[in-house]
Design a protein that fits this description.
With about 300 residues, the chain is of the alpha/beta class. The protein is about 30% helix and about 30% strand.
């Protein structure tokens, strides 16, 4: 039975994602994303599950930076989890009596309309996580009347659900990834995603265009691009890329090799099945067969068989 670290405490959306990704795994809650990933790196866990991006809030920058600077890890799977917030309180609490609410800042942002409409006079205080907020509310003598968290947190901490699905958008989704120490990659499925971190060799006009061209000329479709500061001064950035395809695909392998030639560093974070199952549209001239035929043609030319 594998042991997987995750962003805890018990009752987070990350725990829910872990249960869906690997229902049989032993779960190791950790205080932070960094702690969960370091548990996997150190061998305290066989892997980790962490959030990568949210459809409303965008990228989880702590996760991006950990992948860029920490010891290498590989993404082996992903999950798209619908995010539904609930208003949780101790049994007997009624909404008109709630004066202090505890929750994570992301939940505050995503539940603004509900808070303004249903809790106009309540003070909302930021918590380290939604699960930590639920745990605090469950304690005797807690200064908080309610928490905004996942329903699973209420189950863990004995709270009742006063309102459900209170987010401003009903279609909010968080993308979670399962990671492990470097090992053989999952086989291509035909609907895969590859993730890289790329550092520029030097800052010059057209540097980003040069990187994007390596994808474009080979028909590789980007699904996400993020820039993050290197810490070496204003205007210095590295880049995260998600794109369609598996490193075993000729077009993807050639694009990565092209980036390796022109960039300062390319960190490969894995090729893995897409959670949505969407297969890429292969442009004319970029299939494995066409790359193979072109290579054979070039070999004949070099052998003088014109």
């Amino acid at each position: 039975m594998p042991r997987l670290a995750y962003l805890g405490p018990e009752g987070t959306f990350t725990e829910e994602a872990l249960r869906l990704l690997d229902p049989t795994a032993e779960r190791l809650p950790c205080a932070t994303v960094s702690a969960a990933l370091n548990a996997a790196r150190a061998g305290e866990a066989d892997g980790a599950v962490v959030p990568l991006e949210n459809s409303v809030e965008g990228a989880i920058t702590t996760t991006l930076d950990e992948f860029a600077w920490g010891e290498p890890l590989l993404i082996t799977a992903e999950l798209l989890l619908p995010v539904q917030f609930s208003l949780l309180a101790r049994p007997g609490t009624e909404i008109p009596h709630i004066k202090r609410v505890y929750t994570h800042p992301a939940a505050i942002t995503q539940c603004r309309a509900f808070i303004a409409r249903e809790l106009p006079d309540a003070v909302v205080v930021a918590a380290p996580s939604t699960a930590a907020a639920a745990h605090e509310v469950s304690l005797p003598g807690s200064p908080y009347d309610a928490a905004i968290a996942a329903r699973i947190a209420g189950e863990h901490y004995g709270l009742v659900e006063l309102a459900t699905d209170i987010g401003d958008r009903s279609d909010t989704v968080t993308r979670f990834v399962k990671v492990s120490r470097p090992r053989p990659l999952p086989e291509p499925t035909g609907s895969d995603r590859t993730t890289l971190v790329v550092f520029l060799a030097d800052d010059h006009p057209g540097a980003l265009l040069e990187m994007l061209t390596e994808f474009s000329v080979r028909g590789v479709n980007l699904t996400r691009i993020e820039s993050r500061p290197t810490g070496d001064g204003i205007g210095r950035y590295f880049f995260h890329f998600d794109f369609e395809g598996h490193v075993a695909d000729a077009r993807v392998g050639e694009a990565i090799a092209g980036l390796h030639r022109i960039c300062g560093e390319v960190r490969f974070l894995g090729s893995y099945p897409r959670a949505d199952g969407i297969a890429p549209q292969i442009k004319r001239g970029t299939s494995d067969a066409e790359f193979g035929e072109a290579g054979e043609w070039l070999a004949r030319i070099r052998a003088g068989q014109v």
